[in-house]
Design a protein that fits this description.
Blueprint: E1 4-7, H1 12-22, E2 28-31, H2 48-60, E3 66-76, E4 82-83, H3 97-107, E5 117-127, E6 133-144, E7 160-162, E8 167-168, H4 174-180, H5 182-197
Helix pairs in contact: 1-5, 4-5
């Protein structure tokens, strides 16, 4: 079953991004739901890589496909590089991102551009059918904007401003975002790794 990848996430936006980035591998990319896997995974790692591996290993127990998982977060320099690995759980898992984003904007009120630096970090883990494990990491530098902007993307994208483009990641087209984003970079690195192993 080397021609299938199960991506360990329930996030539809993320699955779409991953499918687009991995499209040239000629493999079917399925979400956990599409693969018929429904389990609760406790992410108690202390790094992005650990959390991604926890997810991939858990899902790999239920399928003989290649399993990939990611763990990502936003690190805001002014907030001591928080929320970091707790980004999804920041202010509570069920809190809407509009509330989270506006809270962050309030925290940075009056903070000048040069101190608003932030980065998105993404680790990708893959567990191969033979039990081999691979991890890669991508980093995407930007800064925190002054208000939410843009309809694309998800999570913290509306406040993650990319000076190179002069807009937030939520204002980038999916193609633009995938070329430069932390997940895009980590997945490109993973594609290169997989080609060596398959």
């Amino acid at each position: 079953m080397h021609n299938r990848i199960v991506f360990a996430t329930g996030n539809a936006g993320k699955v779409r991004e991953v499918q687009a980035i991995l499209a040239d591998m000629g493999m079917e990319v399925l979400s956990m739901k599409e693969a018929g896997i429904s389990i609760d995974i406790v992410e108690d790692g202390t790094t992005y890589e650990e959390n991604a591996l926890i997810k991939a290993r858990e899902v790999a127990k239920y399928t003989d496909a290649i399993v990939m998982a990611d763990d990502s977060g936003i690190e805001i320099e002014f907030m001591d590089n928080g929320p970091g690995i707790y980004s999804a759980r920041f202010m509570g898992e069920d809190t809407s991102y509009t509330i989270k984003n506006n809270y962050i904007i309030q925290q940075l009120e009056g903070v000048p551009d040069e101190k608003r630096t932030a980065r998105y970090v993404c680790a990708i883990a893959a567990v191969l059918p033979n039990g081999e494990e691979l991890t890669t990491r991508g980093i995407f530098e930007g800064r925190i904007g002054y208000e939410e902007a843009g309809e694309n993307g998800f999570g913290y994208d509306p406040i993650f401003y990319v000076p190179k483009f002069g807009k937030t990641t939520a204002q980038l087209s999916p193609e633009e975002k995938n070329q430069v984003s932390h997940r895009g970079l980590a997945l490109e690195a993973m594609k290169a790794e997989l080609k060596k192993h398959l």
